[in-house]
Amino acid sequence: MFGKKFLFTRKSSPTLSFIAEGTKLTGNIEFTSDVLIGGAIQGQILSQANIIVEQTGHLHCEVKCRELIIDGYFKGRLICERLVIQAHGIVDGDVACTSMQINEGGQFIGLRIKEDRQTIHAHSLPSTTAINTLISQGQEN
Predict the structure, then answer these.
(1) What are the mean pLDDT values of the chain's consecutive 10-residue runs (141 residues total)?
(2) How many CA atoms lie within 13 Å of 46's alpha carbon, on the beta-carbon side?
(3) Using CA atoms in the order 79, 108, 138, 81, what is the torsion angle rounded to 10 degrees?
(4) 113 Cβ contact partners less than 8 Å away, ≥ 6 residues apart
(5) For residue 136, what pLDDT is reported?
(6) Residue 106: what pLDDT?
(7) What is the pLDDT of residue 118?
(8) Fewer Cβ atoms within 10 A, N terminus or C terminus of the chain?
């Protein structure tokens, strides 16, 4: 029993990044897996996966992701396949998406452009200069 070697293989499980309440990030951030945001982010987020924003989460930025589920606050420009605004969620800005769902209590203020999936993937986010301008404007408000 003690002489046998056991080999355990780790199954690849989906990873989840977490930005906790009270955390403030500024800049360009990239994620390859899902992220749960409870803190505040200003700048640019580029994700190949899903972004979930809790009630305490505040995004003031440009975002490109597969799916954004928001129960907190978002202001800026969003490019995604699917947007879900939860009961406490507020989205204020320009949105290009294939589908959008607003649950009772959720708020959408802005402009939505319905795009097909291929067009969504072709969209790109603006340069860092444009992001810095967006951040400066946000700090003035």
Answers:
(1) 50 77 96 95 95 98 96 97 97 95 97 83 62 45 47
(2) 12
(3) -10
(4) 94, 95, 96, 97
(5) 46
(6) 98
(7) 75
(8) N
Provide the whole-model pTM: 0.77
- From residue 73, how far is each of 54, 109, 122 by CA, in Å? 9, 11, 26
d(CA 75, CA 53): 12
CB 112 within 8 A of CB 95: yes
Distance of CA 18 to the CA centre of its chain: 12
Closest CA to 122 of 74, 81, 83: 81
pLDDT of 4 reads 54
**Amino acid at the residue 119:** T
Q: How far apart are the first and last CA of the chain?
A: 68
Reference 85, options 109, 121, 114; nearest CA is: 109
Amino acid identity of residue 59, one-letter, is L
